[in-house]
Amino acid sequence: MTRYFYLYIHFMKLQWKRYIQYREDAVIGIIGYSVNTVISIYVLKVFLDNLSNFPGWSTNELVLLFGFVTMARAGWNFIFINTLFIGDYVREGTFDVLLLRPVNTLLLIIFSKIDFESIGEFCIGLIIFWMALLTEFETLSAWFILKIILLLIGSILCYAAIHLFVNSLTFFIKDVYSINFIVWRLDETTRYPNSIYPSWLSILLWFIPYAFIGYFPLMSITKSLPLLADLGTISAGYIIFLLVYKIIWKFSISRYHSYRQ
């Protein structure tokens, strides 16, 4: 594990050097992501201004949810964005090269692209979440902060599991672009409570399972849940990612044959 951590840091440094070769483009990219997040904040404001009654959710809790999910999605973008392009590796035949290297294949894919443009989005989400958190609670203990960090990592891994599952299908149907697009748009729904959506969509979001990205973590943060429920919420993202990796990903690459054959 330590070896992979240092390897990731090494790849990050290389990616950063390549990224800042075109500084104007880098700045524009970061600003673009940040502007997109600001627009989403404005949409949230309009949503809250026109909301007279929302059972079970206070205005501050909705802001907490928005900030938390924004951080989780930005974290996924930063680390796991390249899993969206697994199909390109397969179609171009470069997946064969990855299989021959003495490093975990999925990690090589992850290491190959780091999305620095999502840093601005993460920072804006952090500011929103932190301000709402200070409004919600008078004091914040070290354990509480640690729990939030663990929940955030779990949410990032849940995003990663969903997209890894979808892109593992590329070993069977080759082109998953349309499915990727649908799931990418569904990601946006996690910034708001499930109950605002039609019943069929709400059920779908529980099944995928988007509820473990925003809804359940926010319940763990703002409500006094039983210990087992708290532990289950914290560990859910880790377990879901592990299951997708061990079962879906491993099985998928075992069925791989070169697309060039």
UniProtKB/TrEMBL annotation:
Keywords per UniProt: Membrane, Transmembrane, Transmembrane helix
Q: Which domain of life is it from?
A: Bacteria
Tagged with keyword Transcription: no
Q: Where are the transmembrane segments?
A: 26-44, 64-85, 106-132, 144-166, 200-218, 224-245
Keyword presence, Magnesium:
no
Pfam families, sorted: ABC2_membrane_6
Task: Give the protein's recorded name.
Answer: ABC transporter permease
Q: Which organism is it from?
A: Streptococcus suis
